[in-house]
Write a structure and sequence with these properties.
- The structure holds 2 protein chains of 2 kinds.
- By secondary structure, chain A is an alpha/beta fold.
- Chain A has 2 domains: about 40-300, UDP-N-acetylmuramoyl-L-alanine:D-glutamate ligase; about 305-440, Protein-Tyrosine Phosphatase, Chain A (Alpha-Beta Complex), CATH 3.90.190.
- Chain A has helices at about 1-20, 25-35, 55-70, 85-95, 115-120, 135-140, 145-150, 265-280, 285-300, 325-335, 385-390, 410-415, 425-440; strands spanning about 45-50, 75, 105-110, 125-130, 160-165, 180-185, 210-220, 220-225, 240-245, 250-255, 255-260, 305-310, 310-315, 340-345, 375-380, 400-405, 420-425.
- By secondary structure, chain B is of the alpha/beta class.
- Chain B is globular and about 55 Å long.
- Classes of the chains: A alpha/beta, B alpha/beta.
- The interface of A and B includes residues 138, 202, 358, 362 and 391 of A.
């Protein structure tokens, strides 16, 4: 039976790939033949799961690429199917007819709510949980629910990789016996001591619920924390791998290992360090790991920074309905004290459903942009809703331009001053770059 | 005149942009030249509810709501007195669940007669709610509560309107998205402090445009999705 179902699955995988439906469809077809197919694989000794609200795709890619560069064969779901069907598809494509995975290592990016369906059968050795934040509330409800969902998929044998700077992640280790590797970032030039996200400081002590006090913040509630209750000993755990410095796009880990990044957003530091920790814990050569990650970054320079008519243009890709990543863009923009222009917008809040949820806009600290920005250009179907949010952030209405069609914003962009920060959903980035290309070719 | 506002459980019950409502009120009180004071308090603080004219509470995770309810139960009498003596409350999202007789299997504040069961499926949806006080309310719901025997609905068949208590399962920045409701609510609040207050026209042109555009947008979107 096992032989038949794996064979049928592999045929489905082959056919689906031929018609360009290769990332999850084979898994769906294979499960139709055999609903227990997930139990039929013989996994290799190293199986890594990467999950969390954001950063799981990048982290997975860096880990998989690192193993490959250092001579290991790797199976990973690079086509993006990150629910159980996607996992089945990846495994089908990489197994023998008897279900034995042919690679040395399996690395799987996994949707937070799907982890529990596969971990009992694929026996992960390691799990990276990047973060759990406000993310797509209509689908994901809230962070405490997501924590519960991930916990259902964690057994005592899984080695966890966690960001020591994130107090929310401590909920994964309370009353558990798992082996844990922590990674973290030291105080950097961009760290700050006074909370810049006052209403969003939603994390309290994971053991006694008291308010946390911070030596410094990296962003939101990420930083160096301890419980304010003197009777409680909840503190930031000591990280094994530490970024000590970040300068000119290069991070220094453990005071001597350097990695060049593809962009200098905080999430990129965290994703890179998470991947580095997994690779180095596997006793891979640290220097070679750094080379592998730096090379990958050089190959994947995202088209996010260019100059047009002597103006710096920075394109920051932000998924709607995720206030946490949006706030990274707020802080990043805030740290540039030049007089700026900010372009905001999206075509669709979500492609998953017909609803248009807007409350997350009020979890984004637009207040940080009040100073040093002379023009805000709001674009897209909800351009007026974005404008209302800016107004309530204390931004002067005269500075706000509104265009329901992003292409109509061309003249206002052209007339505006200073560097341009385009904080956009992925579905508007190409359109924005097309507009800028047009401006470059004028005159 | 000075309006005292309490933003209660601002850290544990602010899941979906609920503090947006405070930002909205601040803006318009400033614009009208009315003095105000806003206190942000949570489970570590002592509450003196009689000091406030308006109490705001927002949506939360179920776990955090239980923690806050335990704290609030210490002030059960004070809360119910405040509501009965016409203090203003704006309660959004699942915070309303704390004010019934029972919240799942726990005793709640008992301000109102309804009980709350855990719903079998999560309620997650966009809503347009007709009502008697203003234009239809646009918003979003995301909760796990099933309200049983609610006598005083606020919008359509949901929420609670009792004296100056406005409670709704619509979450987040309801005041910024519904300028008509904002105007109604703000005027009642100000007039409760100063019956003779002369209002200038509220600056709500962006909000009204956003509201109208959103209605148009939804009509087209739903129409197109049906065609597809």
């Amino acid at each position: 039976m096992k032989f038949i179902s794996i064979t049928m699955g592999k045929i489905a995988a082959f056919l689906c790939t031929m018609i360009g439906r290769g990332s999850t469809f084979p898994g769906i077809v294979a499960e139709k033949f055999d609903k227990n197919i997930i139990k039929k694989f013989k996994m290799p000794d190293k199986v890594i799961i990467v999950t969390g609200s954001s950063g799981k795709g990048s982290t997975t890619r860096i880990i998989a690429n690192g193993f490959k560069d250092l001579g290991y064969s790797v199976a990973y779901n690079k086509e993006g199917g990150n629910m159980s069907y996607g996992v089945i598809t990846t495994l089908l494509k990489n197994c023998s007819l008897r279900g034995k995975i042919k690679t040395d290592v399996v690395v799987l990016e996994m949707d937070e709510r799907s982890v529990k369906y596969v971990t009992p059968y694929i026996h992960p050795t390691d799990m990276v949980i990047t973060n759990v934040t406000r993310d797509q509330p209509p689908r994901q409800r809230h962070f405490q629910f997501i924590i519960e969902e991930i916990l259902k998929g964690i057994n005592d044998n899984i080695h966890l990789y966690l960001n020591a700077n994130d107090p929310v992640l401590q909920r994964f280790v309370l009353n558990r016996k798992n082996k844990v590797t922590y990674y973290g970032i030291d105080k950097l030039k961009t760290s700050y001591e006074k909370n810049l996200f006052p209403v969003l400081n939603n994390s309290r002590c994971a053991t006694c619920n008291s308010v946390l006090s911070y030596d410094y913040y990296h962003i939101e509630d990420i930083g160096k924390y301890k419980c304010s209750n003197k009777k409680c000993n909840f503190v930031m755990p000591k990280p094994k791998y530490v970024i000590n410095d970040f300068n000119n796009g290069v991070i220094t880990i453990d005071k001597k290992y350097k990695i060049t990044l593809s962009n200098d957003m905080l999430y990129n530091l965290n994703n890179t360090l998470a991947a580095y920790s997994v690779l180095c814990d596997y006793k891979l050569d640290k220097k070679k790991v750094c080379e592998s990650i730096s090379n990958l970054n050089r190959d994947n320079k995202i088209y996010n920074k260019y100059t047009i008519k002597d103006r710096d243009v920075l394109v920051l890709n932000n998924k709607c309905e995720n206030a946490a990543t949006y706030n990274q863009s707020m802080l990043y923009t805030y740290n540039d004290k030049r007089d700026k222009t900010v372009v905001l917008g999206w075509l669709e809040i979500s492609r998953r459903y017909l609803w248009d949820e807007l409350s997350w806009l009020y979890d984004v600290e637009f207040e940080l942009l009040k100073e040093h920005t002379s023009c805000f250009i709001c674009t897209g179907p909800q351009a007026f809703d974005i404008a209302v949010r800016l107004k309530y952030a204390g931004i002067d209405e005269d500075k706000i331009k509104i265009h329901k069609d992003i292409y109509d914003s061309k003249d206002d962009i052209n007339k505006s001053n200073g560097p341009i920060y385009a904080i956009l959903n992925f579905d508007y980035i190409n359109d924005f770059n097309t507009i800028m290309e047009g401006l470059k070719n004028e005159n | 005149m000075k309006i005292n506002i309490l933003c209660l459980y601002y850290d544990l019950m602010d899941l979906y942009g609920d503090t947006g409502n405070v930002r909205v009120l601040k803006y318009h009180l400033d614009d009208l030249g009315i003095k105000y004071n806003i206190n942000y308090l949570s489970i570590d603080d002592k509450l003196s509810l009689k000091d406030y004219d308006l109490v705001l509470i927002g949506a939360s995770t179920e776990e955090n709501r239980d923690i806050c309810l335990n704290h609030l139960l210490k002030y059960k009498k004070d809360i119910n007195n405040a509501i009965d003596s016409n203090k203003f409350f704006l309660v959004t999202g699942n915070a309303l669940g704390m004010f019934g007789k029972k919240l799942y299997d726990k005793d709640a504040l008992g301000t109102f007669n309804f009980s709350v069961n855990k719903s079998e499926e999560r309620v997650s949806k966009e809503v347009i709610l007709e009502n008697k006080i203003c234009k239809p309310i646009y918003g979003f719901m995301n909760h796990s509560d099933e309200v049983v025997s609610n006598d005083n609905p606020l919008f359509e068949d949901e929420g609670v309107l009792y004296k100056n208590f406005y409670g709704t399962y619509v979450l987040g920045p309801i005041l910024s998205r519904n300028p008509d409701f904002l105007e109604y609510f703000l005027k009642k609040l100000v007039l409760s402090k100063d019956k003779k207050f002369k209002f200038k026209k509220l600056n709500l042109s962006l909000e009204k445009k956003a509201y109208d555009e959103f209605i148009e947008f939804k009509k087209t979107k739903i129409f197109n999705s049906r065609k597809a």
